[in-house]
Specification:
GO terms for molecular function: sequence-specific DNA binding. InterPro entries: Trp_repressor/repl_initiator. With about 150 residues, the protein is an all-alpha fold. The protein has two domains: about 60 residues, 434 Repressor (Amino-terminal Domain) (Orthogonal Bundle), CATH 1.10.260; about 70 residues, no CATH class. It is about 60% helix and about 0% strand. The chain is built from eight helices and no strands. Helix 1 packs across helix 3 and helix 6 packs across helix 8.
C-alpha cells in the first residue's frame, strides 16, 4: 500500500520510470539534465514543482495528485475554511467547494478499517469524514476494495 502520509517523490518517480522503461538518454534530453542529476532526483524526498511537472509530463502521471490526496487525508479543510462560510475573506485564488475523494482514497480508508489498522470512529475523527459518508462507502465499495487489493 502506498504511504500517503510520508511521500518520497523521488522513489515514486523512479518506480514509474522503471515501469515505463523510458531510456535514460530520452529522459536526460527531456529534463535537460545529466544521468547523475536524474539519480539524485530519484534519491530526493522532494523536488521543485518545475521538475515535478516535467516528470509528470514525461511519465504521463499526475504526481501532484499524491500531495492532493495527502491533504484530503491528513489536513482536511476545517469548517471555518469552507467556501460556504460567510465570514471567509475574498480571495482571487480558486475556492474548493468540497472534498473530492478518489477511489484510491476510499479503498485506502476501507482497507484501514478491514485490516484493523483503524476503527470506524478513528477514521471519522482522524480524517474528518462524515459518519454517513463512511458508512455509504462501506456499503458501496467494500467488495470492490477487496477485489482491488487482491490485484
Amino acid at each position: 500500500m502506498l504511504d500517503l502520509k510520508n511521500i518520497n517523490i523521488g522513489q515514486l518517480i523512479k518506480i514509474k520510470w522503471e515501469e515505463m522503461e523510458i531510456p535514460i538518454e530520452r529522459t536526460c534530453n527531456f529534463l535537460s539534465c545529466t544521468e547523475k542529476e536524474i539519480d539524485l532526483m530519484f534519491e530526493s524526498e522532494n523536488l521543485s514543482t518545475e521538475k515535478l511537472l516535467r516528470w509528470s509530463k514525461l511519465l504521463q502521471y499526475d504526481f501532484f495528485r499524491l500531495y492532493s490526496q495527502h491533504l484530503i487525508l491528513y489536513a482536511p479543510q476545517g469548517k471555518a475554511d469552507r467556501v460556504d462560510n460567510p465570514s471567509l475573506k475574498k480571495t482571487v485564488l480558486p475556492q474548493f467547494r468540497k472534498h473530492i475523494y478518489t477511489k484510491e482514497i476510499i479503498y485506502f480508508i476501507i482497507e484501514l478499517i478491514n485490516t484493523g489498522a483503524k476503527t470506524k470512529l478513528e477514521v471519522i475523527h482522524d480524517y474528518k469524514i462524515p459518519k454517513t459518508t463512511l458508512y455509504k462507502w462501506l456499503d458501496k465499495y467494500s467488495d470492490l476494495a477487496k477485489n482491488n487489493i487482491k490485484k
